[in-house]
Each structure stands twice: as C-alpha cells, then as structure tokens.
Amino acid sequence: xxxxxxxxxxxxxxxxxxxxxxxxxxxxxxxxxxxxxxxxxxxxxxxxxxxxxxxxxxxxxxxxxxxxxxxxxxxxxxxxxxxxxxxxxxxxxxxxxxxxxxxxxxxxxxxxxxxxxxxxxxxxxxxxxxxxxxxxxxxxxxxxxxxxxxxxxxxxxxxxxxxxxxxxxxxxxxxxxxxxxxxxxxxxxxxxxxxxxxxxxxxxxxxxxxxxxxxxxxxxxxxxxxxxxxxxxxxxxxxxxxxxxxxxxxxxxxxxxxxxxxxxxxxxxxxxxxxxxxxx
Length: 280
Description:
By secondary structure, the protein is of the alpha/beta class. The chain has helices at residues 14-25, 30-37, 49-55, 77-83, 99-102, 107-127, 182-197, 234-250, 252-260, 268-274; strands at residues 27-29, 59-63, 71-75, 136-143, 149-158, 169-176, 224-229, 263-267. Strands 4-5-6-7-8 form a five-stranded mixed β-sheet, with helices on both faces. A three-stranded antiparallel β-sheet has the order 1-3-2. The longest helix is centred in the middle third of the chain and has 21 residues, at 107-127. The relative contact order is 0.12.
C-alpha cells in the first residue's frame, strides 16, 4: 500500500511545512520535526531550514536541559501571524511562544504529547493507514457550561484503510507523565462522562439551544478516550491503569461512558516499540 495521503510530500516547500507543523503542534525538537515531515531522511535535512526561519524572526528555540543541547523550536509572534492564513490551520487559534514560556515546566508535556502522535504516525505509515501531521490537534477544548471546560491533551483522527474500506476513527488523548496523583488522573474519566451527556441550556431570550448533547456539533460519534502513560516504572504505570479501569467499573457515569464508547490505556514506550496496532 502507499503511504497515507496526508503525509507532506517532498514537493511542498519545507519551510512552509515547518511553520505549519509548529503552528499545529506548538513546539517540536529538530528530531521530531524530521520524523513528522521527512521520516527516514538524513539528519542534515532538518538542520538548516529552521535556522533560516530563525534569522527571519519567524521561529525561535530553547535548549532543553540535560539533553545534549537539543533544541525545541516554536513560532514567534511574527511566525504565528504569518501562519494564521494557512489553509491547513483554518480555525486554529494562533499560539506564539516567547522565550520565557518556552522554558516553562509545560514544555516537557508538550513534547511528550507530540512524541505520542509520532508513535501513531510511524505505525500508520507502516500499515498504510491515514494519520498525518494535521490529524492530531493538541489542546482541544469543549465548554460544559458555567465557564467549565474540558481540555483534552489532543484530538486524534486516524483512518485505517485496506483495498476496499476506510474507517474514520477519532479519539481524545490524555498523556500522563506521572506528574499528578493516580486518583486525579482517573477522575478525568468523569469529565469525559459529563461531556457525553452535557446539553447546552438556553439563556434568557436567546434562541433555543440545539437538541441533543453538545458534542454532536463536532462529531458524528463520540470520540474514543485513550490514556497514554509514561514517566514511571512498569509497576507504577500498571497501578495507574488499574485505577482507570476501576473508575470505569464503579462510577455510574463513567460506566455508562464505557458502554457508549471504547476506552483504553497504553504505555507510551510500548506504542513506540511495538506500534498502536500491535496486540495488547
């Protein structure tokens, strides 16, 4: 089978792709950009273009601590302004990053979310499935009324294909780096259960809200919910997975969510080594 059609081709200008990728994924190391845009290419392929964009004040970088001088690239304010009109990013709010925010504690999480996407992307190329750089949208938010919002680490679009069929799959992805308690992680399932049933309420004289849960405005089917765990030993990750399973069994709303849509958990290192389509 041929590679997924959403994989950027070498005929597209690489600087344009770099700007689009950074606008979509917020931040990426040089190696991640190569795996994202030119998988299998020589390391030198991605060494010069980002520096050229930096000289144009369109991108910047921060050096990651304890990383052998690894650079993490991001859009400047000017770069974010330039990409606002790119067709692939239509509807995506600009997200310029300053040198201060680039060095924030959130940076490792942003890069780990992209690392998760790359595990799916690599396997999709191997399987001939469709999952390209713009089939993964970080930080997708949904309102649940009264100023309450659910923010998924990412929304994934993945399309398995064969010679006759294509199956469009969607999933909310939560990436857990073991930086919060296991109970708080499992409680995220309650948030997704609430979104499943939440219906907007009309306020005052405003026109009536559309019938049905609000997620139907964006999805024909409620997306699956996938937790990707990393950042600890196997026993700790197994315990956190068990707590997620327990929440799905004992909480009535989460149990209903589990009956409605598939829920899953996986270890990031397993996804990278064996691929998401490998047997559990």
